[in-house]
Q: What sequence folds into this?
């Protein structure tokens, strides 16, 4: 089954500067992500991605607003594992899941540009980034499901774990990416969806990741159809006119 996910904007336009004697009574247009998500929800798209944007709004916060404004849309928030402890990220996400009928997903931005990582206070490099991500997901899943103790290289939890109602919602669906041996091993252990980039050797890489669903960033529905024939089911597509994208997708589905 092919699923289309719209990539949401992470920045809001600055308010127009008007002369002091002018009163602007127009509604504030400060939530472009929310408007796009509502359009995607009404158009029948499967989901939305809030990408990690170093200079933009925080993705989990945007995702919370989007989940509140929609009824069916599944929302994936991409964030850097160094942004918080896995226990805090899990508690925040469990709270969102309770209020959004389990529609939240995670995508971890593991392989950041070194300058971006340092600007966010993260100085890990190389394979250590994937080792930390593995511990992050292990701890987040562990505390979600009840009593939990853990001692690793990056995190330690003593007598942790959530009780109901925090433990009741489903853990967020995990999206990961990358083609290095470390990235593939992380996905084998923790991912529900592995997201590829155009140009990746799908035939070879999917053999390394049995049992997962596969995603791809595309720029058009034509690209999506091409990759769908190769086993990809999750497509992430930017769109300025989400209603038009939804109608176009419906037309193709009916024609097919």
A:
């Amino acid at each position: 089954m092919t699923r289309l996910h719209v990539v949401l904007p992470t920045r809001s336009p600055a308010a127009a500067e008007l002369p002091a004697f002018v009163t602007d009574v127009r509604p504030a247009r400060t939530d472009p992500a929310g408007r796009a998500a509502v359009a995607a929800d009404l158009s029948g798209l499967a989901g939305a991605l809030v990408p990690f944007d170093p200079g933009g709004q925080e993705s989990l916060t945007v995702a919370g607003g989007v989940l509140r404004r929609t009824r069916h849309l599944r929302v994936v928030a991409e964030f850097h594992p160094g942004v918080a402890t896995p226990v805090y990220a899990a508690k925040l996400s469990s709270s969102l899941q309770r209020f959004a009928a389990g529609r939240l997903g995670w995508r971890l931005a593991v392989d950041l540009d070194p300058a971006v990582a340092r600007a966010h206070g993260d100085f890990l490099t190389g394979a250590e980034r994937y080792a930390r991500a593995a511990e992050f997901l292990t701890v987040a899943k562990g505390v979600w499901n009840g009593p939990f103790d853990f001692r690793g290289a990056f995190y330690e939890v003593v007598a942790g774990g959530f009780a109901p109602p925090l433990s009741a919602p489903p853990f967020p669906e995990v999206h990961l990416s990358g083609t290095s041996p470390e990235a593939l091993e992380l996905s084998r252990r923790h991912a529900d969806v592995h997201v590829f980039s155009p140009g990746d050797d799908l035939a070879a890489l999917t053999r390394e990741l049995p049992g997962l669903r596969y995603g791809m960033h595309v720029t058009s529905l034509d690209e999506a159809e091409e990759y769908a024939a190769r086993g990809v089911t999750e497509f992430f597509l930017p769109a300025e006119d989400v209603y038009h994208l939804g109608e176009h997708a419906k037309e193709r589905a009916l024609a097919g």
